[in-house]
Amino acid sequence: MPVKRWAWSFGDGSPEEVVRTSRSPSSAPHAFAAPGTYEVRVTARSSTGENEDSRTLAFAVAGLSPTAVPSPGPSATPA
Questions:
Q1: Is the Cβ–Cβ distance between 16 and 30 less than 8 Å?
Q2: Please, are residues 25 and 72 in contact by the beta-carbon 8 Å criterion?
Q3: Which residues are CB-contacts of 1 (< 8 A; sequence separation ≥ 6)?
Q4: DSSP state of 11
Q5: What pTM value is reported for the model?
Q6: 26-48 burial: b if 16+ Cβ within 10 Å, else e
Q7: Assuming Cys at both sites, which of 17, 30, 46, 73 could form a disulfide with 8, CB separation 3.0 to 4.6 Å?
Q8: Contact call for residues 5 and 20 (beta carbons, < 8 A)
Q9: Neighbours of 3 (CB within 10 A)
Q10: What are the backbone angles phi and psi of residue 26, rounded to the nearest 5°?
Q11: What are phi and psi of 22, to 5 degrees?
Q12: How big, in percent rounded to 5, are the helix, strand and coil portions of the chain?
């Protein structure tokens, strides 16, 4: 089943971002307030809501431009 909803949690206390799309994979640009290591979690949900799969990755943010655009990759598609 195609993914209709991607939910992003950036591990920095910001609200979860939800992206509804028919394209796969989805991305969610995010600006971190401070350098550090953040656990970014993306959850893909099918159009029926019955199938869901999540992935969590650690991102190290350093330097003056703490912006990351994580992408879940093809393995994050729910069965």
A1: no
A2: yes
A3: 46, 47, 48, 50, 51, 78
A4: S
A5: 0.65
A6: bebebebeeeeebebbbbbbbee
A7: 17
A8: yes
A9: 25
A10: -100, 160
A11: -100, -5
A12: 5, 45, 50
